[in-house]
């Protein structure tokens, strides 16, 4: 960013409504000599450099800290602190539990930070579009300066191939044409002129007496007085809108944020309740000291918070991004994948998005007959037909001559790279293609009919003439605007014969021109004359012409777009065209694509400020729109509750791309600015790819719901186990680190596997889900609670058995295995002295119980009770892990039976459950240090509970699904 700060805004005027001399006077400059160097430097100080500015972005450390700004994270941080303090007070060391919690917090935050993506480079891309150098007239002479040093009142000299460095009023031009598609959406280069414009609301695309920064001179030359630089230019205004656009949270982000806040407050309330309950003597349970009771509350907090949810959501979205990339949809922001799934409106640019951005001849009028031309773009493949029968154009004199003139009176050329490309004027390019379809290849034809002279195209004449040798004669080939050329035509060629042209001939020709124009086809006329001995001057050569025919062309729709729009409609998605092109062309293309009907209203940009949100919502075609208009359309649709995807490829599309819920840029024809402003890029520029992306988004959302159902129903079980155990007088059934193992290791792999679940084949037959529809809707909550209660009943029943019911519990302390005794006193965090005393008492008891003192017996009873609890916890921990794995299979569908879906249709799930099973087995191996870290006592026959427990979980949920299916079937009858 430049150190120069703008101290004063440039003058604001409707420069296109003023004569060039008045513009110069207003800006205190000379059209002949330009500014002096000293005056230019003063103006640089006054107005600032001719460059785009960008507001400062937050530094990386602020963006990293922002990842911790979440209510559930606050609760986990509090849990880690309490856990560390409790351990410190009890043992003099901070312990291990708080480290596990802290690692999880940091890991989730780092993942979020990395996936946040690159900083927005839209303004940087705009800067790169600025010309590095420019030609100006200063001190009365032409000189080269840096484009950033151009200022208000400078005289800029433009030549073919130049990038326009600043906005300015044209005061001198010679056949000047400027490519403005990136700024206005207009697919054809604009012929510039000097005449003032009287309409103060003239659309940008129709301001033909000015040039605009970052557009490209394609033909001719011109001199311009600079009226705006930097952020005051049209492209600068776009930059400002991009910079000011707000980042929008996706529906999933909003839903998860709302869910997180509600869950957080509920967790805090339950934690307090549990801590209080454990301090009470319920069911004969010895009340816990306040600190230990608080630690029990911490365990519940860890149980209730789905620590793995952010990571699993991120991974699932990343899987979607990878899948979409293979289908040519490049996603820059992860959460936008899900937003696509609830898109209700796609606002699409026309040029290069719905159309090919390649002019194509569709029809030829010659000899009083209208021929159709097949094929599309610049590829020379297609046929010329009359009444659906192929015609040999060379055998039809009028048609043959029309095609030859179109090819010879032409300066463009075609070349095949990855596809056929046009170098030169797109209109001339399509004339080469139409002639080639008749067998006239450019180079061979030019060699056969060599050019001797040329009168270039002129925007005032609207004609171009070349003089060629043809069959031993010198012939003038003329092409141009039909309505003007007819005034210079003396004859007409019909069926190969030349006769005087009549008023009726002209009337019929203009009627055909008007009729084709109503179908958005641009018409060019073609004529010739004998040029032998005629001076190559406009006044002599371009008169007494013989009119021979017309060619009608259009930028055609992409072949696959019509089907893509049909799919959008079946999926409940409305498609609207927003273009800078003219209204007639836009509506004709929309009708051809079945986007709009003939009787529908179509509006121009200047109408938009007077339209209601309802009128904008009902309209499918908007033409001659500016960047502000595009934003207004997007905002109006969002006001109506729509989730808007905006497609585009030009600089002028960038603000609307950024303001839309999903900005979609074209990867091939799109400008860097549009790509940086968008969150999704179509690598193949194929509108149909958007439909694939929408389907992917819907499928991803379904899978996200699956693993949220899985994680939350599992977490509900964990919370209920702790809460019910407290209420009925049982000891704390599970500790915080065990819960972290379950939530992240055991649950994590199956949750990720649910992200790989095959999508429902009826996805694109559904309407978009309402943006305000919560994830936790009624059926979802009922299913989640039911599954949680089933899981709770199984594991809590087993905990009660092993803690309270003989013979499941060890009644005699002598029956405790030696290594289990060692684990118990370690898990109880005894000091070295207490552990030594306990070991001595245990050894003495095994040798002779009668020798054990009352004090030693009290220690042994404490260890016995503690062992009973740790043993029961280990059984609960084991069964809890396996029943949650069974729950993962249940969550593969909310309504369909797992037996119908098939256990083997998601191989990733099989691998995930297999990995979780192996890790669980490793955890329970005797002497395993990992088991000691997670308070696990190795088990024997207790493993037999795993199979029946899993079977009960599957059967119970299958019953609920059956009831749901019957209920839905009864409603539909």
Task: Briefly say what this structure is.
The chain is of the alpha+beta class. It is built from 36 helices and 28 strands. A hairpin with a 2-residue loop joins strand 1 (133-138) and strand 2.
Give the count of helical stretches: 36
The N- and C-terminal alpha carbons lie at a distance of 68 Å
- Rg computed from alpha carbons, rounded to a whole number of angstroms: 39 Å
- Gross morphology: elongated
Weakly predicted, low-confidence segments: 1-6, 115-131
The overall average pLDDT, rounded, is 84
Count the E strands.
Answer: 28
Find the CATH topology of the largest domain. Calcium-transporting ATPase, transmembrane domain
CATH 2nd-level architecture of the largest domain: Up-down Bundle
Sheet with the most strands, sense and barrel status: 11 strands, mixed
Report strand %. Answer: 15-25%
Count of domain modules: 5
Helix content: 40-55%
Q: What is the assigned CATH homologous superfamily of the largest domain?
A: Calcium-transporting ATPase, transmembrane domain
CATH class group of the largest domain: Mainly Alpha
The structure class reads alpha+beta
Written overview of the protein:
The structure is a single chain. The chain is elongated and about 140 Å long. 48% of the residues lie in helices and 16% in strands. The chain is α+β, with helices and mostly antiparallel strands and 973 residues long. Helix 9 (251-278) runs antiparallel to helix 10 (290-304). The strands form 4 sheets. Strands 10, 11, 12, 13, 16, 17, 18, 19, 20, 21 and 22 form an 11-stranded mixed β-sheet that branches. The protein has an 8-stranded mixed β-sheet with strand order 8-28-27-26-9-23-25-24, with helices on both faces. A hairpin with a 2-residue loop joins strand 1 and strand 2 (141-146). The chain folds into 5 domains: 15-55 and 129-244, Calcium-transporting ATPase, cytoplasmic transduction domain A (Distorted Sandwich); 61-122, no CATH class; 254-317 and 699-972, Up-down Bundle (Calcium-transporting ATPase, transmembrane domain); 331-354 and 559-694, Rossmann fold (3-Layer(aba) Sandwich), CATH 3.40.50; 360-554, Calcium-transporting ATPase, cytoplasmic domain N, CATH 3.40.1110.
